[in-house]
């Protein structure tokens, strides 16, 4: 099996590939499940019909924000790893592009890791015209291999109008724009059992102090406040990343992600000390440290929403993709299961994100037009209405999302502006940030077991990071 990629061009091992597949599978499944679980699609209108009309032959249709060229007779292929409902909904976006331009678009299902899939296609002389790539490092790898082509002025203009500078910058390599981030994930959310909060008299917190207050009320009501899936180290890195990003700030986050500062830095001490307020608080974590370290991610979610108003825990932290796991419990999202943004520890609430960027592999008028369309609010609004999708495009109206839960998640993502960051462990060498039983995963699991040992944890993190980063 080929290794998958990570940001900054470091290759990951099979264990990391499995982790990415687990996360991506959860997100893809969520795209299919969310609409049914909420029974609130908010769809309708011509956008849902896709290419059901005569091709417009170019120009700007009524209500459209972007002008597209006439492409009658031209065809192109778009590759992505999306399956199920996610793929079906994206095809409706492509159908609208066909309707407005006269082009013929074929969706090519890709295998993960998509870079390896594209390599085989390119070696066979049949690359797709456009590919949707996860992570900034995927774009850089495509550029380094001389596969990717820079986007043109039309798409660049759409980016400038519709995206924050941060979302534009992560699609750049060497100062040139190669990627247009069409899809995003919000990994800075805390889901809670609504009945537990109601019984405890707890309110949705906006600050870390308010979170601790809410947790105490939940505890006093007889329910353990937090469920933690400590058996999988990536859940613990996500906890750390959200606390660190909010407390230390984006610049420090970038420096630590690239190991430009050491894990013995005082900012890491502060974040670990903050985490210990939950991990080290007696009876604040379901099953205690020992139980949490034996709890898989999926169970950490489901045990929060089973047992009526006496579940194993009142809250669980993770991204928007946990909706598929919540749906398995028969809890109604938005009624039984509610969500709030990860509370701010410092001056700003954190948003740790992921996403997929459209990258051109075969430069043509049609490929450039498609990427321009994907950079517009026209395309993203179509898929937003269908559910199970988040867009980093700030011009997509919040009302386009089909229910209050999706609207809150989207609003939090857009409100982060340029302060969002990609998952830090995904930016690290796999030996440090992506291997079960080793590196950051193991060190944070040990810290969960003994949250008093802040200095010792820092020392282990730095030793493992130095070895993995090669210095």
UniProtKB/TrEMBL annotation:
Coiled coil: none annotated. Residues 9-23 have a biased composition (Basic residues). Residues 52-61 have a biased composition (Gly residues). It comes from the Bacteria. Residues 1-23, 45-66 are annotated as: Disordered. Keywords: Transport. InterPro entries: Bact_solute-bd_prot1 (IPR050490), SBP (IPR006059). Transmembrane segments: none annotated. SUPFAM superfamilies: Periplasmic binding protein-like II. Belongs to the bacterial solute-binding protein 1 family. This is ABC transporter substrate-binding protein. It comes from Streptomyces yaanensis.
């Amino acid at each position: 099996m080929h290794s998958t990629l990570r940001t900054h061009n470091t290759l990951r091992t099979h264990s990391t590939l499995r982790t990415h597949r687990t996360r991506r599978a959860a997100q893809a499944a969520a795209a299919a499940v969310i609409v049914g679980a909420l029974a609130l699609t908010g769809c309708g209108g011509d956008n849902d019909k896709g290419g059901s009309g005569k091709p417009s032959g170019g120009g700007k249709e009524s209500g459209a924000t972007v002008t597209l060229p006439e492409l009658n007779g031209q065809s192109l292929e778009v590759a992505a790893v999306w399956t199920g409902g996610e793929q079906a909904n994206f095809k409706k976006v492509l159908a609208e592009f066909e309707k407005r331009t006269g082009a013929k678009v074929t969706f090519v299902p890709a295998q993960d890791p998509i870079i390896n899939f594209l390599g085989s296609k390119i070696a066979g002389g049949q690359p797709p015209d456009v590919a949707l790539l996860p992570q900034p490092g995927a774009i850089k790898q495509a550029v380094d291999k001389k596969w990717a082509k820079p986007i043109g002025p039309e798409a660049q203009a759409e980016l400038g109008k519709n995206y924050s500078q941060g979302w534009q910058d992560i699609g750049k390599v060497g100062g040139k724009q190669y990627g247009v981030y069409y899809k995003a994930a919000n990994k800075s959310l805390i889901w809670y059992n609504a009945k537990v909060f109601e019984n405890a008299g707890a309110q949705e917190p906006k600050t870390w102090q308010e979170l601790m207050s809410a947790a105490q009320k939940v505890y006093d009501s007889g329910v353990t406040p937090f469920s933690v899936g400590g058996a999988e180290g990536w859940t613990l890195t996500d906890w750390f990343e959200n606390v660190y990003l909010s407390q230390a700030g984006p610049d420090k986050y970038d420096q630590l992600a690239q190991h430009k500062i050491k894990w013995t830095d005082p900012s890491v001490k502060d974040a670990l000390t903050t985490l210990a307020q939950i991990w080290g608080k007696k009876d604040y974590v379901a099953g205690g440290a020992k139980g949490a370290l034996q709890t898989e991610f999926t169970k950490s979610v489901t045990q929060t929403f089973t047992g009526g108003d006496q579940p194993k825990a009142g809250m669980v932290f993770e991204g928007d993709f946990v909706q598929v796991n919540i749906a398995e419990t028969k809890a109604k999202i938005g009624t039984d299961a509610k969500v709030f943004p990860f509370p701010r520890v410092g001056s700003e609430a954190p948003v740790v994100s992921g996403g997929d960027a459209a990258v051109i592999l075969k430069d043509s008028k049609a490929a450039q037009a498609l990427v321009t369309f994907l950079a517009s609010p026209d395309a993203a609004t179509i898929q937003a209405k269908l559910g199970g999708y988040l867009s980093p495009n700030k011009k997509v109206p919040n009302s386009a999302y089909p229910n209050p839960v999706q609207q809150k998640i989207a609003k939090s993502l857009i409100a982060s502006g340029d302060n969002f960051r990609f998952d830090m462990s995904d930016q690290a060498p796999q030996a440090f940030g992506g291997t079960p039983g080793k590196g950051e995963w193991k060190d944070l699991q040990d810290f969960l077991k003994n949250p008093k040992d802040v200095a010792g944890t820092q020392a282990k993190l730095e030793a493992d990071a130095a070895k993995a980063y090669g210095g």
